[in-house]
């Protein structure tokens, strides 16, 4: 899988998490959403760094 597809997939997941938090939970889970966004960002950054170093 190309890195660009993985990055776009993670962005889509982050947007869906935000949408669900705002529409279903009325923003009550902002702390959990922030944690998930941060964890996804750090994971993708590590994955990107690993694949960039392999080339």
Name some characteristics of this structure.
single chain; 55 residues; mainly alpha; elongated
How much helicity do the residues have? over 70%
Order of helices and strands: HH
**What is the C-alpha radius of gyration, as a whole number of Å?**
13 Å
Count of domain modules: 1
Major β-sheet annotation: none
Name the overall outline. elongated
The low-confidence runs, each spanning 5 or more residues with pLDDT under 50, are none
Q: How many beta-strand segments? A: 0
Count of discrete alpha- or pi-helical segments spanning 4 or more residues: 2
Portion of residues in beta strands equals: under 5%
* Spatial gap, N to C terminus: 15 Å
Give the overall average pLDDT: 91
Strand pairing plus helix content: what structural class? mainly alpha
Written description of the protein model:
- This protein has one domain.
- Helix content is 84%, strand content 0%.
- It has helices spanning 3-23, 30-54.
State the gist of this model.
By secondary structure, the protein is mostly helical. It is 84% helix and 0% strand. It has one domain (3-54).
Q: What's the topology here?
A:
Elements: H1 3-23, H2 30-54
Helix pairs in contact: 1-2
């Amino acid at each position: 899988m190309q890195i660009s597809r993985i990055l776009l997939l993670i962005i889509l997941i982050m947007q869906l998490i935000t949408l669900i938090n705002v529409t279903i939970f009325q923003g009550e889970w902002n702390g959990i959403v922030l944690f998930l966004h941060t964890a996804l960002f750090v994971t993708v950054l590590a994955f990107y760094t690993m694949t960039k170093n392999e080339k």
